[in-house]
Amino acid sequence: MPTQDIRQRMNQRLAELYERHLALHEDKIVGYYTPGTGNHKPEETAESEHKRFAICLATTDGEVFYVGDHDRPFALQSISKVFVYGMALEAHGRDNVLKRVGVEPSGDAFNSIVFDERNNRPYNPMVNAGALATTDLMEGEDPAEDLERILGVLRRYAGNEDLKVDEDVFALEMGSADRNRATSYLMRSYGMISHAVEENLALYLRQCSVCVTSRDLAVMAATLANGGVNPVTEEQALASRYVRDVLSVMHTCGMYDSAGQWAYEVGIPAKSGVSGAILAVVPGKLGIGVFSPGLDVYGNSVRGIKVCEEISERLGLHIFADDAEDALLGPLNSGNGT
């Protein structure tokens, strides 16, 4: 476990990182997400959102560090796809899931209505079409049971029994889900989903409308970093044999159609959501949760990306970094900056 001196140093560096990035990047913001519209709202209408910002780190030892609006709730949105994909793998096995959802980056926007026509399946579970297919793989007797199972799993990942659907967000999303609805009906016509379209769509949008904080997000990431075991509660959230599959798809497909740039610059598995959150995983070491709702053209958090780039660079976390193996604790012990 970290010593008190290391904890103080980590908190200080997080505070410095937060202050530095709070003052930067607003010139690169395209807009802010409006629940239910599927669009970015103009920057001038989102004045109250400009300074919303939090950085949280959770280690596989169960230590949690945070700075900023760490207790402000936001909808998981696309980040929920990670955890439901893991549930599908546990329920059906990797080979059966692979028949229904591929693992190839699509290169298209997350809401594109495109499929892998050679294999009659969505390209991957991180785009909307793939997520609709993995939601369709839930095994409950009815959607209410499926939702309770999803909530139970999300609560184990976060170590927070209070996680629930924000019904206001859900109502907005459901009321303007025409593109996802069109995707669903087309998928059903091809045999890619089997449940009633409206029931499956509602379940998908409810999972996206579950609210978390950036602290929850960091612990969820640390659970994946810890082989599927929550490092704070020590509860198993995902069977360890499927963690590799989830992280692999996150690494290649998790950041919308800028996943390649992320892999090149940051080099760790991650998933973003249009609410402004990024979940990133350093296997065996660390989970990262960043929240800042200013988005770039791809729908990723502008500050979130820059914070993760800096953390990865300074701690040598990129999967291909020469010093990645021992870099996490090295800078903390030596007093170098985060």
List keywords for this structure.
Beta-lactamase, 11% strand, alpha+beta, 10 strands, three-stranded antiparallel sheet, 338 residues, single chain, 44% helix, EC 3.5.1.2
Note down, in words, how this protein is organized.
Mean pLDDT is 89; it is low at 324-338. The chain is 44% helix and 11% strand. It is an alpha+beta fold and 338 residues long. The radius of gyration is 19 Å and the shape is globular.
Predict the CATH topology of the largest domain.
Beta-lactamase
- What is the rounded distance between the termini? 19 Å
Structural class: alpha+beta
| Sequence of secondary-structure elements | HEEEEEHHHHHHHEHHHEEEEHH
Percent in strands = 5-15%
Tell me the domain tally: 2
Helix content: 40-55%
As residue ranges, the low-confidence spans are 324-338
Outline of this structure?
With 338 residues, this protein is an alpha+beta fold. Helix content is 44%, strand content 11%. The chain has helices at residues 4-22, 80-92, 94-100, 128-136, 143-158, 167-175, 178-189, 197-208, 214-225, 240-253, 259-265, 302-315, 329-334; strands spanning 31-33, 40-41, 54-59, 64-68, 74-75, 211-212, 270-273, 277-282, 286-291, 294-295.
